[in-house]
Amino acid sequence: MTEEMEALERRIERLTAEVRRAATAGDRDLASGLRAELREARRIWDESLDRLEAEASGRSEDAIAPRSGPVSSPALLPAREQVHQALTLIGAPAAPRLIVAVHDAFFAGRFASARLTSLRRDEERSFRSAPYARPYYLCAALSADLLAPARGLLAVSAWPMDRRIVGPLSPRVDYLTAAIRIGERIRDIPGTSGDSRRLLWRFAANIPHAAGTFSTMNADEIINAARAELAVHEQADSGQRRAAAERARSQLNDAEQLFGAGLQVSRQRSADG
Question: Which residues have C-beta within 8 Å of that of residue 13, sequence separation ≥ 6?
């Protein structure tokens, strides 16, 4: 128990420093996700301390009053906050499979992918019934050509419009962006899990000159290799995304800018343009 608490204390210390750095850099999305993780780590530490005191006094653990929030790991945070944490770390629109992998590798608890099935529809209903009532919404990435929802890709409403657009080069650009951010997280926070390193290896295996083997891979080398390839595609991709974002702002209403225009509407507007 003491070793577990010491590990939690080291994690709390690391998270505190990460929150400060994110806040100083002005990255509010990242700071928000890290603060949620920090709160949960502190709650678990409090519960561990209660158990330690119970053991010392000879009380049964059943007699310990539970702290606020669930004790079991699968439901530490609501599903939308778990998805927000993962997307904030990824930094680009992502498919459910990657969202689940990133959450399970870096954040407390296990995330059930079945929750994602109706989540985006729930977010859209919430926005349409009370626009901007929440600080963020989990929304759709939009295709650059039709400004329709990109199949299976989720984004965060607080991101700039062009970051939520997906053009022909965007899947590769977003893949490299995610690899860089995951590599930076592993590099900057010592003691990350084996799951997180395995996830980074899956990225590295599809980036030229990123790593030779799992056992010898180095986060900095993977980051540098991803940045080198990103430099090849980024300018063209950014231009396509900015142009599509300008069309979206001029053609779509607020809800459509987050959740996409219907396919027939998209085609009509494309033809009119």
Answer: none
User: How many Cβ atoms from other residues are within 10 Å of residue 1's Cβ?
Assistant: 10
Distance from C-alpha of 180 to C-alpha of 90, rounded to nearest angstrom: 9
| Structure tokens, 220 | 């900095």
Rounded to an integer, what distance in angstroms lies between the CA atom of residue 32 and that of residue 86? 12
CB 83 within 8 A of CB 103: yes
Instruction: Give the number of C-alpha atoms closer than 13 A to the C-alpha of residue 187, restricted to the C-beta side.
Output: 14
pLDDT in tens, the chain (273 residues): 466 677 777 778 877 887 888 788 887 767 776 787 788 777 777 777 777 777 766 654 444 444 444 333 444 578 888 899 999 999 999 999 999 999 989 987 777 777 787 888 899 999 999 999 999 999 999 999 999 999 989 999 999 999 999 999 999 999 999 999 999 999 988 777 788 999 999 999 999 999 999 989 999 999 999 999 999 999 999 999 999 999 999 999 999 999 998 754 554 555 555
What is the pTM (predicted TM-score) of this model?
0.71
